Description:
The structure holds two protein chains of two kinds. Chain A is mainly α. Chain A contains 14 helices and no strands. Helix content of chain A is 78%, strand content 0%. The radius of gyration of chain A is 25 Å and the shape is globular. Chain A starts with a helix and ends with a helix. The longest helix of chain B is centred in the N-terminal third of the chain and has 32 residues. The two termini of chain B are 35 Å apart. Classes of the chains: A mainly alpha, B mainly alpha.
Amino acid sequence: MKKINANFRSEFPFFMALPAVAWQFFFCYVPVVCLILLSFLRSGNTAFDTQAVTLENYTYFFSPLFALVIGRSLLLAFCTAFFCLLFAYPVSYCLAIKIRRFKNIFLFFLILPFWTSFMVQAYAWFFVLEHNGLINTILLNLGVISAPLHLLNTTLSIYIVMVYCYLPFMIMPLYTALEKIDRRFFEAAADLGATQWQTFTKLTIPLSMPGIKTGFFLVFVPAFGEFVIPTLLGGGKKLFVGSLISQYFFVARNPNIGSAFTVITCIVLLMAVGLLYWFFNRKTVLTLTQED
Amino acid sequence: MIRSKNTLRYFLPVLAVAAYLFLYIPIIILIIFSFNKSDLPLVWEGFSWQWYIALWNSPDMWHALKNSLIVALCSVALSIVLGLFFVFYGSRNFLGKLLVMFYASLAMPEIVLAVGLLSLFSFFSVPLSLTTLIAGHTLIGLGYVVPILHSRFQELDKRYMEASLDLGATETQTLGLVIIPLMLQSLLAAALLVFVLSFDDFLISFFCSGGSTQTLPIYIFVMIRSGATPMINALSTILLVVSSLLVLIFSSLKIKKMDFLQ
């Protein structure tokens, strides 16, 4: 009895740490396996059956139509991440390095969108983009246009709102990276006669590279599978990966084809992320050698 | 040379101001129109509280809010307890080496997790309900809780723990009386973060809830699709106020949300 007790006591930490691992295993890794299994079963089969194993779910997607959907999503994800970087860099830079007074207030307003619902943020744009919305009212009153522009339910509206919603995901890592830069580097650069532009390109950008990378992936990966924004603001006219997946599961009610498509998109995403990773790492090496 | 100096000096602040305007103009318009008398979303007819009153009297909203709160609170409790036990007890055996495993749910696009969970539940014919939702949200929560708590736990002075164990406290006593008080700030921060993530989550809720259980984001989504009314503005304004309060609490905890990702 004593031995069992002692054994139990030595194994106690193991059993206390186990539930989290089990949870992660059952609800993250097992689902992926289920998804892959489902994708190899003939339509209509949800339980595993060796008779129903097939590759036809995959061959179904050998068509330019689906390549177009995936390509469109890749382009959307890449452009979103790129424009987010473009917009987020100046604001993070100013906040992390330039501003001294009221910094907390500025920071508060920068963090706030991160904590507000995606749905609320997307909905807010209806008032800006609609027929009698803000942009059309301003442009009409200024006399730039004579008839209201058609802005809602277009690809443009999807892009604008995507950049808007994902901006905080870029700002946070950028700000963190920029704030970590030792101020003495800037002093040293100024002392050694570097112009502001040289300091910016040769010092600030390379040193904030970890933040750029993190932000780029934080935006790129979820933007690729985004479902809400294309559905609400695109009017469902153009299909993206997220909306197509949900259509297979909810409209066509064909989880087998749907999971095959999900697996294919995951493979494409992995390749895209790998490519980006290679690109970023190559670029840092280049900037470092330039500095030498 | 002087020109490039000046462009950089004025160019960046102007862009920064533009970014703030870009972030806040839509939100400000949204808030203004929540007080609109007209039921046409974009015609201003005067000030009124009527949409807030209509929202208060809407049973669907209360139902969705109740579901959202249940799911969020349960997944906060589960992911904090599981995460804390993993970080503390896992540091004492090989399970702690499995930390990497928890990054997977962060690295995958959420829609893949959502579809995966849906096929898991259909594979084992589990009926979709609030419970399946809690399972999914706890998974998302663990992806944030474990890295945050782990990085804080590594920073702790391990001598406190050794002293406590030397003086005869059991591991559980050490956890409750030494480790938890030392980690209180990051525990609160992680709890707040998981609460907001779960409360705002749409994809997992949409895929794993089944038709009957509506959470607040799904309620808003359905309302927007069936025709926008200023009631959504009222609801959005309230949610914005709540999230600003949460940000105030969170920033007073002095933990930067993204620190652990770098």
